[in-house]
Specification:
alpha+beta; Ribosomal Protein S8, Chain: A, domain 1; 6 helices; 25% strand
Length: 213
């Protein structure tokens, strides 16, 4: 389960920002209003932002310890079936997610072109875990630091897109990408008051759009 806290001028703005960061629809999250916010004197002084806590609904009753053990076993079995050598599989927890890292001399095979093989492996592991309520958690899989390099690359692409939009005034459309990558783009441009980012499209064609506010 992913959980975040968001502040904004109003509760609805905070919810919309949270949905953008979690990159999911409203019916897939649990929302708790921590502060409804308040306008200050004449709407100028002493304004208090609204604050909400939002969490994805999946995995809320999971045994995280069991999930970690299951992820390690599933990856071990899958890699053996694929005849891929590895030296270590480490698992940890972050924000209600299980993080798995594979050390392997065959990391290029595990990652694949543009990370597609890694995404497929991650999807398979998540599907297997979701069959049991006790292990129903989100799993993120990495190999030899690929995810970090990808995040840095996407952040740079986000900055380039922002510069282009500001100079041309035209909307910029990224190519379709997985939810994880879209989230990185959204967060990279979140603090830019001149721009807004949206996710458009459905399924594998969902993409990030950057435009002037």
């Amino acid at each position: 389960m992913s959980e975040i806290e968001i502040e904004a001028k109003t509760v609805e703005e905070a919810i919309q920002e949270g949905l953008k960061q979690l990159d999911c629809s409203r019916d897939k999250v649990e929302i708790k209003i921590l502060n409804e916010g308040a306008s200050g004197l004449f709407g100028l002084m002493g304004n208090k932002p609204a604050k909400v806590r939002m969490a994805t609904k999946d995995g809320s009753a999971s045994d995280l310890g069991l999930a970690q053990e299951s992820v390690k076993k599933i990856l071990n079995d899958l890699l053996k079936m694929m005849s891929i050598n590895y030296t270590a599989i480490t698992v940890s927890l972050m924000g209600g997610r299980v993080l798995a890292d594979i050390k392997s001399p065959d990391s290029s095979i595990i990652i694949g072109k543009n990370g597609q093989a890694l995404e497929a492996l991650e999807s398979i592991v998540n599907l297997i875990l979701n069959r049991d309520e006790k292990t129903r958690v989100k799993v993120s899989i990495d190999s030899e630091g690929y995810r970090l390099r990808q995040e840095e690359r996407l952040q740079e692409l986000a900055r380039q897109a922002a510069d282009q939009v500001k100079k041309s005034g035209k909307t910029f459309n990224f190519d379709p990408m997985p939810a994880r990558d879209r989230r990185i783009i959204h967060l990279a441009l979140k603090s830019d008051s001149a721009l807004e980012t949206l996710s458009e499209g459905e399924g594998m064609f969902r993409k990030v759009v950057v435009k002037l506010k």
